[in-house]
Amino acid sequence: GENVEQHPSTLSVQEGDSAVIKCTYSDSASNYFPWYKQELGKGPQLIIDIRSNVGEKKDQRIAVTLNKTAKHFSLHITETQPEDSAVYFCAAQEANNLFFGTGTRLTVIP
Amino acid sequence: EPEVTQTPSHQVTQMGQEVILRCVPISNHLYFYWYRQILGQKVEFLVSFYNNEISEKSEIFDDQFSVERPDGSNFTLKIRSTKLEDSAMYFCASSLYRAHNEKLFFGSGTQLSVL
Fold first, then answer.
1. In B1-115, at which residue ranges do the beta strands (DSSP E only) sit?
2. Which of A7, A59, A90, A96 is the best mutation test for B, with the most CBs of B within 10 A?
3. Which one is predicted more confidently, B3 or A14?
4. Burial of A82 by CB count in 10 Å (0-12 exposed, 13-18 middle, 19+ buried)?
5. Which residues of chain B from 68 to 107 reach within 8 Å of chain A, CB to CB?
6. What is the rounded distance in angstroms from the CA atom of residue A90 to the CA atom of residue B6?
7. Which residues of A touch B (CB under 8 A)?
């Protein structure tokens, strides 16, 4: 099955700086890559996703890039704010199931 | 915004006991899922459910596990005889369509501790 690796496991940035989280996947047939944000005491919430027919997608301060050849995709958060502090998960879809990375704990320092 | 609700938020049980984790998916959704996350590890797929039957299941979902939609609103995960290694956060999720290219809505999870 699909194997998703995610780095780093923890990330601390100063408020206003950018944060980048990277993921790789193993199955070239995967074609849907969502990113989830999990705040304390809550379930994962979808924040952005990208399909394999595009290389980049942006939504305000959040962007995701996809390199299908290299089988990696990244989440970029610009102008970080304290409320961005959370655990972020990448995922890749193979067939009808999502395979998740291990998560990145992002801390934005005011 | 509609949400998936899960109860209880925490469940402590003795090894060998049966537990039932409950979920209320979003009302118009048709596909239901259980995932779990052992502390420090990946969120793992357990099972998907559609039209009152299991669509797919992972290797984790062995004979000790079962799912049921007993009425029009609830979706349950039963673990028949819990083991220590079943301790994890269990997430329920639902979607209007199949997961393929479709947004999953997750509940806030049930933390299961097996002693």
1. 5-7, 10-13, 19-24, 31-37, 43-50, 53-57, 65-68, 75-79, 88-95, 105-106, 110-114
2. A96
3. A14
4. exposed
5. 91, 93, 98-101, 103-107
6. 23
7. 4, 31-32, 34, 36, 41-46, 49, 51, 89, 91, 93, 95-103
Gap between the Cα atoms of B92 and B5, Å rounded: 8
Which pair of structure tokens corresponds to residue A4? Answer: 């998703």
Half-sphere exposure of residue B3: CA atoms within 13 angstroms, side-chain side: 11
Mean pLDDT, contiguous 10-residue spans, chain B (115 residues): 91 97 94 91 90 90 94 92 96 81 85 97
- Token code pair at residue A47: 């924040």
What confidence tens digit (pLDDT) does each residue in A41-81 have?
888 999 999 988 889 999 999 999 999 999 999 999 999 99
Does the distance separating the beta carbons of B99 and A97 come in below 8 Å? yes
Whether residue B93 contacts residue B113, with contact meaning beta carbons closer than 8 Å, is answered with no
Looking at residue B74, its amino acid is: N
